[in-house]
Amino acid sequence: MVITDFLERNANEFGNEVCLVEVNPERKESRRVTWREYELIESTSSEYYRNEITWAVFDEKANRFANLLLSRGIKKDDKVGILLMNCLEWLPIYFGILKAGAIVVPLNFRYTSDEIKYCLNQADVDVLVFGPEFIGRIESISDEISQRRLLYFVGESCPSFAEDYATATSNCSSRKPTVFVHDKDNAAIYFSSGTTGFPKAILHNHESLIHSCRAEQAHHQQTRNDVFLCIPPLYHTGAKMHWFGSLLSGSKAVILKGTSPETILETASRERCTIVWLLVPWAQDILSALDSGRLNLSDYQLSQWRLMHIGAQPVPQSLIKRWLTYFPDHKYDTNYGLSESIGPGCVHLGMENIHKVGAIGVPGFGWEVKIVNEDFEEVADGEVGELAVKGPGVMTCYYKDPAATAAVLRGRDNEWLLTGDVAQKDEDGFIWLVDRAKDVIISGGENIYPVQIENFLSAHTKVKDVAVIGLADDRLGEIVAAIIETEEGAECTEEEINDFCRQLPRYKRPRKIIFAKVLRNATGKIEKPKLREIYGAVGLVAKQNQA
Fold first, then answer.
1. How many C-beta atoms surround the C-beta of residue 172 within 10 A?
2. Residue 6 and residue 19: Cα distance in Å, rounded?
3. Secondary-structure breakdown of the chain: helix, strand, coil percentages, each rounded to the nearest 5
4. DSSP line for 367-419
5. C-alpha atoms less than 13 angstroms from C-alpha of 85 in its C-beta half-sphere
6. How much is the pLDDT for 223?
7. CB-based burial of residue 474 (10 Å sphere; 0-12 exposed, 13-18 middle, 19+ buried)?
8. In whole angstroms, what is the distance from residue 307 CA to residue 268 CA?
9. CB 431 within 8 Å of CB 495
């Protein structure tokens, strides 16, 4: 079995049912709303742009693109890149690539031209599908990348250096192509976050994708009655693998292009969303808007919303406690994973374990976990070590990088993946993330874990977001610096933070307090290398204007 079998099953059994909805508050032109229930919902805004497709149309679109690729000479194991913002076309293109037996290569929409060129070369991409937001970046390198690649454009006003996707697929067959694909065949190359240089190409097979479907549904119990609100970028394993639960259950998903609190709550209300995956900053923004009175829950219909879950980064305990004061009936889960372990789910808290908020949880469905020392020996409960995971979702390798692969895969059959995260297990078997190994601060010979200090500072009522980094110091080697983003309108002083930190052991207290915006990437991870560059290279100013 391969993952496209689920799509074909849904098309056969639920073909006329809506499977994907796109909501885009920023769209200039209005689209006709076809969902009958929308007529019954009183709008809180004057404009609401929406489009939808059924399972049958989804499958037909995937088949057309697969047949186009095959007609242009694309063979099994050739690579096809996707550089698109979230849209209705994204997932049919993804599945069309898989149906052709090719390997899909999603690209980060924040990549510069040089990074795009690097990734295309690193992954040996033969075809690139891109959208209007990337015309300038692709045009600047088109002479170099188009010599041996096909370029397809999704959108209006196709540039001269590419071929129009809609026109090219319109005359292709909508029948399933006759390509045999096995679960051990290569399926996708995902790129790492690239926080320490150019990203690494992570190769997965169909078995990995299939397992992420099963793990997601096992964790969150999706049924055909659920509606999943998908906000994060689809190029990332997190968003797509959470959507895989909708694929497996044959349920509807809403792709939202917008992250403001108003947009999230309004869309959850209108579309009757039952499951919402948020990043920490979005959850914080919603809470801030509710705290300030800018938003009122009584203006929305949210009684159907049953699960809020968060992934991609450590989650402050204080955030979830605040969340449950507004949404006391919500189930909550946090998911831990890496692109190397096919996204979320190798460790998860579990909806039944809200009493352990703060832990990343227990081994996910089908996964094994252990915490090891430098010799790959398992440490005792309570001791700190590196988290290692084993399961059907572990990557095949870093593509064309055997040295990097050997550095993270362990065991007789390379079945264990070293995550690079420092963790410890408590007496109940729950795993607590201590920090990234590379982010540990060594100050005066003491190991200091920034995540622990970030969790502590996030409990301060005036702190909206916080990042803790180590900065060079002649005497101690490194000192702890806290970059603090305050709640909107809040006046906070360095003295207040220092007084608050007196609860911490002296060696863990921040030596520098910087009031500034906390930089995060598209998946919500703190961009610590950038913060170190900003505040480490040019000297520190103890207090700056809020960015």
1. 18
2. 13
3. 35, 25, 40
4. -EEEEE-TTSPBPPTT--EEEEEESTTS-SEETT-HHHHHHHEESTTS-EEEE
5. 12
6. 95
7. exposed
8. 12
9. no
Q: What are the structure tokens assigned to 101, written together?
A: 């037996």
Provide the pLDDT confidence category of residue 473 given band limits of 50, 70 and 90. Answer: confident
What backbone torsions phi and psi does residue 285 show, to the nearest 5 degrees? Answer: -65, -40
DSSP per-residue string spanning 92-132: HHHHHHHHTT-EEEE--TT--HHHHHHHHHHTTEEEEEE-G
Q: With contact defined as beta carbons under 8 Å apart, do 201 and 122 qualify?
A: yes
Q: Average of pLDDT values for 7-12?
A: 97
Contact partners, residue 106, CB within 8 Å, separation at least 6: 81, 82, 94, 188, 190, 191, 234, 235, 236, 240
Q: Kindly report each contact of residues 349-355 with a partner whose C-beta sits within 8 Å and lies 24 or more positions away, as own/partner.
A: 350/219, 351/219, 351/220, 351/221, 351/307, 353/430, 354/320, 354/324
Q: What are phi and psi of 541, to 5 degrees?
A: -110, 120
In angstroms, rounded to a whole number, what is the distance separating the alpha carbons of residues 386 and 378? 9
Do the Cβ atoms of 491 and 498 come closer than 8 Å?
Answer: no
Residues in the chain, total: 547
The whole-angstrom separation of Cα 366 and Cα 393 is 9
Answer whether CATH 3.30.300.30 is correct for domain 440-537.
yes
Asked if 101 and 185 touch (Cβ cutoff 8 Å), the reply is yes
Element (H, E) at 339: none
Can you tell me which residue has the tokens 């909501």? 23
Query: Is the pLDDT score of 429 beyond 80?
Result: yes
Q: Which residue shows structure tokens 């799509």?
A: 7
Using an 8 Å Cβ cutoff, are 282 and 262 in contact? no
In sequence order, what are the residues at sequence separation of 6 or more whose Cβ sits closer than 8 angstroms to the Cβ of residue 518? 465, 466, 467, 483, 484, 485, 526, 531
Q: Which residue has the tokens 């190991």?
A: 447
